[in-house]
Design a protein that fits this description.
This protein has about 90 residues and is mainly beta. It has one helix at about 1-5; strands at about 10-20, 25-35, 40-50, 60-65, 75-85. The chain has 1 helix and 5 strands.
Amino acid sequence: MAENRTSLRKVRVGKVVSSKMDKSFTLLVERVMKHPRYEKTFRTSSKLMVHDEKNEAGVGDVVKVMETRPMSKQKRWRLVEIVERAK
């Protein structure tokens, strides 16, 4: 039953922009969209506040995050794994 519930949560992959806060960081998620009328493709991005319990992620890391309960006013995501470390 627990496996079913986690599959409903959104998962995003993005790049860490800022990790100066304690137990949190800011993630930049980019996606490619197509304009509904003119069909030109363009990039759009959004910033997410992510909860990082062990302060593992650093600036430039590519990470995977999952939707979770509200941790604070802005934090609604938590770190799942670090896909790629910054070079």
